[in-house]
Amino acid sequence: MFAGRINEINTFEHGLHQTRNGSPTHFLITGERGIGKSSLLMLYKPLADGSIATEYGNMNFVTINTSISPRTNLNTFIKIIDKGLKRELGKIESVRSFLNETWSFVQRIKIMDSGIEKNSVAEEPDLIIDDLAYSLAETCNRITNPEKGEQAKDGIVFFIDEADAASPELHLGYFIKIVTEMLQQHNCTNVMFVIAGLPEVIGKLSDSHESSLRIFHHLKVKELLKEDRYYVIEQGMSEGNRVNQDLTTISDEAKSRISTLSEGYPHFIQQFAYSAFDINDDGEISEHDVLAGAFNEGGALDSIGRRYYASQYHEQIKSDEYRDVLAIMAESLSAWVKKSEIRQKFTGSDQTLTDALKALTNRKIILKNPSKLGEYRLQQRGFALWIKMFGNRDK
Ligand SMILES: Nc1ncnc2c1ncn2[C@@H]1O[C@H](COP(=O)(O)OP(=O)(O)OP(=O)(O)O)[C@@H](O)[C@H]1O
Ligand SMILES: [Mg+2]
């Protein structure tokens, strides 16, 4: 059911081609919650490992997948890399013993982490990163220039998802910047990093190392185009009809409704379509089914809200007046709104409005325009959409 993303796929294929030929290309993929970042990575992986052909033929990269949580520190991260490489490459005896030797420093980290050596102090991140870069370069050179009986590889691609969750202790920006520079010094030119996360990840990377952003090609994942939305609906219908005994059809108006309500958010398309299918009882999904499925109690909006936005709206914001400010801002979706415009519609005091804007900015729910005084906008368009529609439903 994967739709669209032609440009993102072409750019990535080109990046693989470049990396295979010794000009490593790194990607930073950002986009709002549920827009399709992880799904894009799931498609990138087979392109990199050769299970799906690219425009430049079948690639043959070793791929390492990882996803970051707030608890991930440098040591866990390196252990994941070590484990991933051994899993992917360790099937051949000679490579396995090569890896064990080259990555022996990980053993040291494990011992330190387990506290067996009681007096050992945690190692400097610099030293660990240095060891890692060296081992990675050795590994990459070995697999691209294999010894007898070993299979050649194009290089290594790291997929790092949920990078917005990175804690400052992970030093992610610094890590990537130093590792890529050191790889170059060690003549290792076939390693690619692909990092995905919410737009906040940009700030996290540059906080960790100012110029770390410069190494990336930045791909912003956007809403699906109209024809892609239709494609998702139609694929879903034919898959449904393949597995169900009773056939279901869908009217053009219903498709169009799902498409516009979703605003191109793939998870919204799925949810609106699912709820319409659920409510339909005559074999044809009509516009009415879509609307009832979307706005009814327990319908699409409720489900989406519960999954993605409810905690932001109810738990992180304690005051009803702050929520009023958000509702006013949500009318403009995620476009910049002047404080004076909000004030016109806001029924609370000036002070409350000022406090609300400050608190919401601090919690990164809204953004303050850095280049224009007194302008704010909702951080996520999807969240704005949800607030807007959720409010409408209550009315
Ligand atoms: N291009 C696409 N075509 C069809 N469906 C898609 C596409 N992209 C994503 N989806 C669907 O939308 C849903 C959300 O996608 P996904 O989990 O990839 O988003 P995400 O950006 O990684 O979200 P999060 O920020 O929560 O990690 C998934 O169920 C996925 O199957
Ligand atoms: Mg994701």
TrEMBL record:
InterPro entries: AAA_16 (IPR041664), EF_Hand_1_Ca_BS (IPR018247), P-loop_NTPase (IPR027417)
Taxonomic superkingdom: Bacteria
Pfam families in UniProt: AAA_16
Domain Orc1-like AAA ATPase: 2-168
Matching PANTHER family: ATPASE DOMAIN-CONTAINING PROTEIN, DNA-BINDING PROTEIN-RELATED
Name this protein carries in UniProt: Orc1-like AAA ATPase domain-containing protein
Species for this entry: Pseudoalteromonas nigrifaciens
